[in-house]
Amino acid sequence: MIFSNQTLNREISILLIDDFDISSSNDMIQLKKILKKIFPRDSTLFFSFRREESLTSDEELKKLRAKIFDTFNKEGEYVVLKRLDDARFDSVAKIVINDQTYNFLFDIWNYFYSCTFFIPNKNLTFSDYITFHTNNKFQDIANEKLLNQNFSNFTCIKGLGGDNMVLSYRSNYNLPDLIL
Fold this sequence. Notes:
The structure is a single chain. This protein is of the alpha+beta class. The chain has one domain (2-170). Helix content is 33%, strand content 32%. It has helices spanning 25-38, 58-75, 101-111, 126-136, 144-148; strands at 2-7, 12-18, 44-52, 76-83, 89-96, 112-118, 154-158, 164-170. An eight-stranded antiparallel β-sheet has the order 1-2-8-7-6-3-5-4, sandwiched between helices. β7 (154-158) and β8 (164-170) form a beta hairpin.
């Protein structure tokens, strides 16, 4: 795993965690440690998703689809904001983190092509988050708009290809030490 810091602008910084493979048990263990550091148990996570992952087999997508939507239905909430067809959609979700959530995030990683997740600040309701995405049409590079409105201190973004994760954060926020 390679860690590199970048500055998007005065207000937003980026930590890129690159060159990992979630099918590798060593990388999965390291990523899970990182996720546990930044997402404490009993916190609420908000998500945004865009379409199914095209690099995952159809059979695996079918299994993941059932598992993911069952979990959101039982433990959280999932809302489709725009649907083009079964594989292409814009959606949001929320869930409260428990011990199984960290493994669930890997299922999400494999199922969705585009995925962002974060702990909302107390002033952001799920309804407000839906409105935010409805107004912005999912056009928020590095979650700059979301962070500038103080809806969160940091966000995680699945990088293209799924072998990297982008942590966008408010420059005045101190991320925990994530280098293992």
